[in-house]
Structures are given as structure tokens and as C-alpha cells.
Amino acid sequence: MMWNHKSVRSFSGALAFLLASASIAESPMNPQDAEVYPMARDSLLLDVTDTGNGLIAVGVRGHILRSQDGERWEQIVAPVNRLLTAVSFADEKQGWAVGHDASILHTTDGGASWELQHFDPDGLGPLLDVYFENAQRGYAIGAFGTFLGTTDGGKTWTAVDAPAVADAAVHLYAITRAPSGRYLMVGEMGSIFATDEEGQWVQLDSPYDGSFYDVQALGEKGVLAVGMRGNAYVTNELGVADWRRIESDTLLGLTSITPVSSKRMLITGLNRSMWVLDAPGRMTQIRVYDPESSNTGSLNAAVVRDGQVYLAGDRGIHVMPLPAEDLASVSQQ
Questions:
Q1: Which of 138, 158, 163 is nearest to 148 (CA)?
Q2: Is Protein biosynthesis tagged as a keyword (predicted)?
Q3: Domain 16-329 adopts which CATH fold?
């Protein structure tokens, strides 16, 4: 089973419990600029992505962190102080971040500055993921079946006409696009959606009735989905009911999927743990931050750049080496 190695949006998903995690005092009505915090690099971060010219991470209180070398990080003042859950770049310059109160932010300079495109504290719930296939067309998804789309780079956002998604009325956690051009989306209650050959959204049969938190295309037709209680499922052909459960030997929630090569994936999860999944379907745990504790936060997203793995978690940015010769031998930092 060969896996496609492509540009990754990186958070490929947000945990359900994060819907309630923003117990921070936030202005209920009007957007306010995020405050600059000296320890922002060590605060709760939910997503990190490689823009092609640096790294961008987003998280609590509207924190946006930017680094061009992976070592020195600066906080960029965001036009909202809401929890930001996901970030996606269409190219080195054009990027979008989403979060609570249906906040959608846009940058045209690689993340050096951001403007607010969408904000709805009285209407839509939290947005939990965003994906742009190019600088014009993208989607933002979130709680209570929120599904927004744009074809003009975010100047206007409208509800996507997708009856199958609307009828399901579930929280939507992750969206991505396969090399074939088909979109994939997962959510609570085992929900799996995809676009068909005509571009219409359909709901697929699911092998699991718990929440899926991230989804990743495998080659042209395959799919990997991960979620609650260590559940990971793979199929060699989207739309065919041949899902196979991958034995993970864990009950920890799995939060994100990051391709490393055509044959390997990194999977992050609760307890600040991480696994490697190889092409034959073997899932091996390679990192536990606090093995003696059963409740020590989470790793929420990962990105691989220049031989390093950059992890976004409840304690900010973590960095670990990625030996090219044997991913499974990654040692604890």
C-alpha cells in the first residue's frame, strides 16, 4: 500500500473537547486584537503548518506564532482574541486561520499580518478546520454542521449546498482533498463525507460510530481516518465498504495525521503521545511525554520540515528529530 506524500494542512482536525476548552474571558460581541504574551510559544496551540517559507502555529486567545527557521518564534498580533483551531495555506503568501465565533482570518504576506474576513459571535459555532486548494477556493467547517465555502479568496463566505452534510447535523472536525480531486471530511458519530465524481457531497458508510478527528488520503483512492479511543481505520478504495481497523494498542484519542513519506505517517494523540504508521498497517508508539500520567494534555498537530518534527500541543511548540534512516527509532528529546 503506497501512500501519497503531499502538502499537509496539518491539523488535520480538532478534538471535540476543545469545543468547551475556551473558558477564557472573551468579548461576547466585538472582535478585539489578541494581546501579546511573552510565553505564547508555550501556550495551547491547536495547529501548525509549513507555508513553504516558514511555520505558522495557531491557538488559544488568538495566538498566531510565526517562525522562519523553526527555532525563533514571534507572536503576530491577530485581529481577534478567540481560540484559533486550524490554519491552511494555499501558497507561500496566502493563508487562512479559523476559530471560535466563526472567526476567519486571512494573510497575504505569509503570516506577517492578518485581517478578519468573517466573524459571527451570535450565530455560527466554532470553526474547527479550514482547507484551501488554491488562493480562491476553500472551505471552513465546524460545530453543529457548519460548512462554509468561498470561491473568491474569502471575500465572501456562504453556506455550502450539501444536503447530505446538512441532514447529518453533526460536528465536523477535519477536511482535506485527495490527489484525485475528491474532498474528504469527517466528524462526530462516525461521520464520513466525500465528494462524488460530479462534485456532490455524499455520506459514506462508516466502520465506527465514535468521532473521527482527522482524515488523510492514501494515494489516489485510499483513506485513513483516526479518532476516539485509539480508533484508526483504513480503506484502499474510497466508497467501498472494506474498512480495516488498525490495531493501535491504545485507548487514547488520536488527533492528527501527518504524512512523512509515501510509506509512513505520524499520528498524534492525547497524553502527548505519537505513533508511526507504516505501509503494511503497523502502528507503533514512538513517544510519550509523561508515561506515568493518564491525563497530561495532548499533541494536536504535527508538520515535518528540514528533518525535524514540529508539534503543536497543550504546552506550545515541541521539536523532535526525524532520522531519515528509520522513523521508528526516533528518540525522546
A1: 158
A2: no
A3: Methylamine Dehydrogenase; Chain H (2.130.10)
Residues whose CB is less than 8 angstroms from the CB of residue 18 and which lie 6 or more positions away in sequence, other chains included: 46, 83, 85, 126, 128
Say how far residue 123 (Cα) sits from the centre of its chain: 23
Contacts of 330 (CB under 8 A, 6+ apart): 276, 286, 287, 309, 320, 321, 322, 323
Q: Where are the domains of the chain?
A: 16-329
pLDDT in tens, 188-209: 999 999 999 899 999 999 999 9
Under 8 Å between Cβ of 173 and 128: yes
Task: Indicate the residue type of 118.
Answer: H
Pick the closest to residue 55 from 316, 331, 328 (CA basis).
Answer: 316
Residue whose C-alpha cell reads 462534485 in the numeric block:
199
Q: Using CA atoms, how far apart are residues 196 and 132, in angstroms rounded to an integer?
A: 19
Cell of 258: 501527518
Chain segment 266-324, per-residue pLDDT in tens: 999 998 888 988 876 788 887 665 545 555 688 999 999 988 999 999 999 999 887 55
Question: Is-contact 116 79, C-beta < 8 A?
Answer: yes
Please give the model's pTM, rounded to 2 decimal places: 0.88
Q: Which residues pair with 89 in a beta bridge?
A: 95
